[in-house]
Amino acid sequence: VHVTFEEGTQAEWLYDLISPHATELVVCNPHHNHLLKSWNKSDRVDARKLAQLLRAGMLQPVYHGEHGTRTLKELVGGYECLVSDTSRVKNRIKAIYRGRGVRTSGRAVYQASQRELWLQKIESVGLRSRAEFLFRQLDQLQLLRREAKRAMLKESRRHVATQLLQQIPELGPVRIAQIVATVGTPHRFRSKRQFWSYIGLAVITRSSADYRIVDNRMQKHRLAVQNRWLNRNYNHRLKSVFKAAALGASHSEAYREYYGRLLAAGTRAELARLTLARKLAATVLAVWKSGE
Protein backbone atom coordinates (compact mmCIF):
# COMPACT_ATOMS: atom_id res chain seq x y z
CA VAL A 1 0.00 0.00 0.00
CA HIS A 2 1.37 3.42 -1.02
CA VAL A 3 -0.20 6.46 0.63
CA THR A 4 0.20 10.20 0.24
CA PHE A 5 -1.50 13.26 1.67
CA GLU A 6 -0.65 16.93 1.86
CA GLU A 7 1.06 18.67 4.77
CA GLY A 8 -1.44 20.30 7.12
CA THR A 9 -2.63 20.62 10.71
CA GLN A 10 -3.16 16.87 11.23
CA ALA A 11 -0.24 15.68 9.09
CA GLU A 12 2.02 14.71 12.01
CA TRP A 13 -0.72 12.73 13.76
CA LEU A 14 -1.77 11.01 10.51
CA TYR A 15 1.85 10.12 9.73
CA ASP A 16 2.26 8.32 13.07
CA LEU A 17 -1.12 6.62 12.59
CA ILE A 18 -0.68 5.37 9.02
CA SER A 19 3.06 4.71 8.67
CA PRO A 20 3.02 1.27 10.39
CA HIS A 21 0.41 0.06 7.87
CA ALA A 22 1.89 1.39 4.61
CA THR A 23 4.82 0.33 2.45
CA GLU A 24 5.41 3.93 1.41
CA LEU A 25 4.01 7.08 3.01
CA VAL A 26 4.73 10.51 1.51
CA VAL A 27 3.59 13.71 3.20
CA CYS A 28 3.83 16.11 0.27
CA ASN A 29 4.24 19.85 0.00
CA PRO A 30 0.94 21.37 -1.21
CA HIS A 31 2.68 24.42 -2.69
CA HIS A 32 4.28 22.26 -5.38
CA ASN A 33 1.12 20.43 -6.45
CA HIS A 34 0.15 22.80 -9.25
CA LEU A 35 -1.74 20.03 -11.05
CA LEU A 36 -4.44 20.19 -8.34
CA LYS A 37 -5.18 23.84 -9.15
CA SER A 38 -6.24 23.18 -12.74
CA TRP A 39 -9.60 22.00 -14.10
CA ASN A 40 -12.31 20.74 -11.75
CA LYS A 41 -11.60 20.57 -8.03
CA SER A 42 -13.13 18.34 -5.38
CA ASP A 43 -11.90 15.89 -2.74
CA ARG A 44 -12.25 12.95 -5.12
CA VAL A 45 -10.51 14.75 -7.99
CA ASP A 46 -7.69 15.96 -5.73
CA ALA A 47 -7.15 12.46 -4.33
CA ARG A 48 -6.87 10.99 -7.81
CA LYS A 49 -4.41 13.68 -8.93
CA LEU A 50 -2.30 13.12 -5.80
CA ALA A 51 -2.24 9.41 -6.57
CA GLN A 52 -1.08 10.12 -10.13
CA LEU A 53 1.67 12.44 -8.88
CA LEU A 54 2.78 9.81 -6.35
CA ARG A 55 2.94 7.10 -9.02
CA ALA A 56 4.99 9.40 -11.29
CA GLY A 57 7.36 10.35 -8.45
CA MET A 58 6.55 14.06 -8.83
CA LEU A 59 5.69 14.83 -5.21
CA GLN A 60 8.02 16.85 -3.01
CA PRO A 61 8.05 15.17 0.43
CA VAL A 62 7.93 16.96 3.77
CA TYR A 63 10.16 15.41 6.42
CA HIS A 64 8.33 13.47 9.17
CA GLY A 65 10.76 10.68 9.99
CA GLU A 66 12.44 11.59 13.30
CA HIS A 67 10.69 10.62 16.57
CA GLY A 68 13.55 11.04 19.04
CA THR A 69 13.10 14.80 19.22
CA ARG A 70 9.31 14.86 19.41
CA THR A 71 9.25 15.89 23.09
CA LEU A 72 11.84 18.61 22.55
CA LYS A 73 9.93 19.88 19.52
CA GLU A 74 6.75 20.30 21.57
CA LEU A 75 8.61 22.05 24.40
CA VAL A 76 10.33 24.43 22.00
CA GLY A 77 7.00 25.26 20.40
CA GLY A 78 5.44 25.93 23.80
CA TYR A 79 8.32 28.18 24.83
CA GLU A 80 8.15 30.18 21.60
CA CYS A 81 4.40 30.68 22.04
CA LEU A 82 4.96 32.08 25.54
CA VAL A 83 7.72 34.38 24.26
CA SER A 84 5.37 35.64 21.54
CA ASP A 85 2.52 36.16 24.03
CA THR A 86 4.83 38.03 26.41
CA SER A 87 5.96 40.39 23.65
CA ARG A 88 2.36 40.96 22.61
CA VAL A 89 1.29 41.92 26.15
CA LYS A 90 4.28 44.25 26.53
CA ASN A 91 3.36 46.00 23.29
CA ARG A 92 -0.22 46.44 24.51
CA ILE A 93 0.98 47.97 27.78
CA LYS A 94 3.19 50.47 25.99
CA ALA A 95 0.39 51.26 23.55
CA ILE A 96 -1.78 52.42 26.46
CA TYR A 97 0.81 54.94 27.60
CA ARG A 98 1.74 55.95 24.08
CA GLY A 99 -1.91 56.75 23.41
CA ARG A 100 -1.86 59.19 26.36
CA GLY A 101 1.40 60.85 25.35
CA VAL A 102 3.44 59.20 28.13
CA ARG A 103 6.98 58.17 27.17
CA THR A 104 7.82 54.57 28.03
CA SER A 105 11.27 54.03 26.57
CA GLY A 106 13.21 51.12 28.04
CA ARG A 107 11.92 48.38 30.34
CA ALA A 108 11.10 50.41 33.44
CA VAL A 109 7.37 50.19 32.75
CA TYR A 110 7.47 46.40 33.15
CA GLN A 111 9.19 46.36 36.57
CA ALA A 112 6.96 45.35 39.46
CA SER A 113 8.70 47.72 41.88
CA GLN A 114 7.62 50.76 39.82
CA ARG A 115 4.17 49.54 38.88
CA GLU A 116 2.17 51.81 41.18
CA LEU A 117 4.08 54.83 39.91
CA TRP A 118 3.21 53.97 36.32
CA LEU A 119 -0.43 53.26 37.11
CA GLN A 120 -0.81 56.69 38.70
CA LYS A 121 0.06 58.28 35.37
CA ILE A 122 -3.24 56.99 33.90
CA GLU A 123 -6.16 59.24 34.84
CA SER A 124 -8.99 57.20 33.30
CA VAL A 125 -10.39 54.60 35.73
CA GLY A 126 -11.32 52.15 32.99
CA LEU A 127 -7.99 52.46 31.25
CA ARG A 128 -6.16 52.01 34.56
CA SER A 129 -8.10 48.81 35.21
CA ARG A 130 -7.20 47.57 31.76
CA ALA A 131 -3.53 48.29 32.42
CA GLU A 132 -3.71 46.42 35.75
CA PHE A 133 -5.13 43.34 34.01
CA LEU A 134 -2.33 43.47 31.44
CA PHE A 135 0.31 43.79 34.16
CA ARG A 136 -1.13 40.74 35.96
CA GLN A 137 -1.17 38.82 32.69
CA LEU A 138 2.46 39.81 32.09
CA ASP A 139 3.49 38.52 35.54
CA GLN A 140 1.87 35.14 34.90
CA LEU A 141 3.36 34.85 31.41
CA GLN A 142 6.85 35.60 32.69
CA LEU A 143 6.52 32.84 35.31
CA LEU A 144 5.27 30.35 32.71
CA ARG A 145 7.99 31.44 30.31
CA ARG A 146 10.73 30.68 32.83
CA GLU A 147 9.20 27.28 33.62
CA ALA A 148 8.89 26.44 29.92
CA LYS A 149 12.50 27.49 29.33
CA ARG A 150 13.77 25.25 32.16
CA ALA A 151 11.80 22.28 30.84
CA MET A 152 13.02 22.88 27.28
CA LEU A 153 16.68 23.15 28.28
CA LYS A 154 16.42 20.09 30.53
CA GLU A 155 15.06 18.03 27.63
CA SER A 156 17.63 19.49 25.25
CA ARG A 157 20.53 18.36 27.45
CA ARG A 158 19.42 14.75 26.98
CA HIS A 159 20.49 14.84 23.33
CA VAL A 160 24.07 14.20 22.26
CA ALA A 161 23.82 16.89 19.59
CA THR A 162 23.41 19.54 22.29
CA GLN A 163 26.81 18.69 23.77
CA LEU A 164 28.40 18.90 20.31
CA LEU A 165 26.84 22.19 19.25
CA GLN A 166 27.71 23.90 22.53
CA GLN A 167 31.31 24.08 21.28
CA ILE A 168 30.32 26.48 18.48
CA PRO A 169 30.56 30.16 19.51
CA GLU A 170 27.41 32.32 19.45
CA LEU A 171 25.11 29.31 19.80
CA GLY A 172 23.53 29.50 23.23
CA PRO A 173 21.39 26.79 24.86
CA VAL A 174 18.08 28.20 23.58
CA ARG A 175 19.27 28.42 19.97
CA ILE A 176 20.76 24.93 20.17
CA ALA A 177 17.47 23.54 21.46
CA GLN A 178 15.64 25.19 18.57
CA ILE A 179 18.11 23.77 16.03
CA VAL A 180 18.00 20.22 17.42
CA ALA A 181 14.20 20.22 17.68
CA THR A 182 13.72 21.49 14.13
CA VAL A 183 16.38 19.52 12.25
CA GLY A 184 16.08 16.23 14.15
CA THR A 185 18.96 14.59 12.32
CA PRO A 186 21.65 16.21 10.14
CA HIS A 187 21.67 13.26 7.75
CA ARG A 188 18.53 14.64 6.12
CA PHE A 189 20.84 16.97 4.20
CA ARG A 190 23.41 15.60 1.79
CA SER A 191 25.40 18.84 1.66
CA LYS A 192 25.57 22.25 3.24
CA ARG A 193 23.85 23.78 0.21
CA GLN A 194 20.71 21.76 0.91
CA PHE A 195 20.86 22.95 4.51
CA TRP A 196 21.22 26.55 3.37
CA SER A 197 18.12 26.15 1.22
CA TYR A 198 16.18 24.69 4.15
CA ILE A 199 16.99 27.65 6.43
CA GLY A 200 16.47 30.31 3.75
CA LEU A 201 20.11 31.20 3.04
CA ALA A 202 20.38 29.80 -0.48
CA VAL A 203 21.01 32.28 -3.29
CA ILE A 204 18.57 31.95 -6.19
CA THR A 205 19.60 33.27 -9.61
CA ARG A 206 17.31 34.08 -12.51
CA SER A 207 18.44 35.17 -15.97
CA SER A 208 16.77 35.77 -19.30
CA ALA A 209 17.96 36.30 -22.89
CA ASP A 210 21.23 34.48 -22.27
CA TYR A 211 21.58 33.72 -25.99
CA ARG A 212 21.28 35.83 -29.12
CA ILE A 213 21.50 35.17 -32.85
CA VAL A 214 24.54 36.70 -34.56
CA ASP A 215 25.12 35.97 -38.26
CA ASN A 216 22.49 33.23 -38.14
CA ARG A 217 24.33 31.52 -35.30
CA MET A 218 23.41 31.17 -31.65
CA GLN A 219 25.85 32.90 -29.29
CA LYS A 220 25.79 33.17 -25.51
CA HIS A 221 26.25 36.46 -23.71
CA ARG A 222 29.52 36.53 -21.82
CA LEU A 223 28.19 38.93 -19.19
CA ALA A 224 24.59 37.89 -18.77
CA VAL A 225 22.75 39.87 -16.08
CA GLN A 226 21.35 37.60 -13.35
CA ASN A 227 18.85 38.56 -10.67
CA ARG A 228 19.78 37.15 -7.26
CA TRP A 229 17.84 36.79 -4.04
CA LEU A 230 17.40 34.32 -1.20
CA ASN A 231 14.97 31.43 -1.50
CA ARG A 232 11.48 32.17 -0.19
CA ASN A 233 10.47 28.64 0.85
CA TYR A 234 12.32 28.03 4.11
CA ASN A 235 12.04 27.22 7.81
CA HIS A 236 11.33 30.53 9.56
CA ARG A 237 12.54 29.41 12.98
CA LEU A 238 15.99 28.37 11.76
CA LYS A 239 16.47 31.46 9.62
CA SER A 240 15.73 33.63 12.64
CA VAL A 241 18.17 31.61 14.75
CA PHE A 242 21.09 31.85 12.33
CA LYS A 243 20.45 35.51 11.48
CA ALA A 244 20.55 36.42 15.17
CA ALA A 245 23.64 34.28 15.70
CA ALA A 246 25.40 35.94 12.76
CA LEU A 247 24.57 39.40 14.12
CA GLY A 248 26.19 38.51 17.43
CA ALA A 249 29.10 36.74 15.75
CA SER A 250 29.99 39.87 13.78
CA HIS A 251 31.02 41.50 17.08
CA SER A 252 32.49 38.43 18.83
CA GLU A 253 36.15 37.54 19.16
CA ALA A 254 35.79 34.18 17.41
CA TYR A 255 34.51 35.59 14.09
CA ARG A 256 35.72 39.21 14.16
CA GLU A 257 38.74 38.55 11.95
CA TYR A 258 36.72 36.62 9.37
CA TYR A 259 34.02 39.30 9.32
CA GLY A 260 36.65 42.02 9.01
CA ARG A 261 38.23 40.33 5.99
CA LEU A 262 34.86 40.29 4.25
CA LEU A 263 34.36 44.00 4.86
CA ALA A 264 37.93 44.78 3.77
CA ALA A 265 37.31 42.95 0.49
CA GLY A 266 34.48 45.36 -0.32
CA THR A 267 31.52 43.21 0.78
CA ARG A 268 28.55 45.15 2.07
CA ALA A 269 27.78 44.71 5.76
CA GLU A 270 24.46 42.91 5.19
CA LEU A 271 26.04 40.50 2.70
CA ALA A 272 28.95 39.89 5.08
CA ARG A 273 26.49 38.94 7.83
CA LEU A 274 24.71 36.64 5.37
CA THR A 275 28.04 34.95 4.58
CA LEU A 276 28.69 34.64 8.31
CA ALA A 277 25.28 33.03 8.84
CA ARG A 278 26.00 30.52 6.07
CA LYS A 279 29.37 29.74 7.67
CA LEU A 280 27.69 29.12 11.04
CA ALA A 281 25.11 26.85 9.39
CA ALA A 282 27.81 24.87 7.56
CA THR A 283 29.76 24.52 10.81
CA VAL A 284 26.69 23.22 12.65
CA LEU A 285 26.01 20.63 9.95
CA ALA A 286 29.64 19.48 9.77
CA VAL A 287 30.11 19.17 13.54
CA TRP A 288 26.78 17.42 13.99
CA LYS A 289 27.41 14.94 11.18
CA SER A 290 30.96 14.09 12.19
CA GLY A 291 30.17 13.91 15.90
CA GLU A 292 33.36 15.76 16.85
What does this structure look like?
By secondary structure, this protein is mainly α. 54% of the residues lie in helices and 10% in strands. The chain contains 11 helices and 6 strands. The strands form 3 sheets. A two-stranded parallel sheet has the order 1-2. Helix 3 (70-99) crosses helix 7 and helix 10 packs across helix 11. It starts with a strand and ends with a helix.
Instruction: Find the structural class using helix and strand composition.
Output: mainly alpha
Sheet with most strands: strand arrangement: 1-2
Low-confidence stretches: none
Q: What is the arithmetic mean of pLDDT?
A: 91
Largest sheet: 2 strands, parallel
Keywords:
mainly alpha; 292 residues; two-stranded antiparallel sheet
Helix-strand blueprint:
Blueprint: E1 2-6, H1 11-18, E2 24-28, H2 43-56, H3 70-99, H4 115-119, H5 125-156, H6 160-165, H7 173-183, H8 192-198, E3 203-207, E4 211-214, E5 217-220, E6 226-230, H9 236-249, H10 256-264, H11 269-290
Parallel strand pairs: 1-2
Antiparallel strand pairs: 3-6, 4-5
Helix pairs in contact: 3-5, 3-7, 5-7, 7-9, 8-11, 9-11, 10-11
In short:
By secondary structure, the chain is mainly alpha-helical.
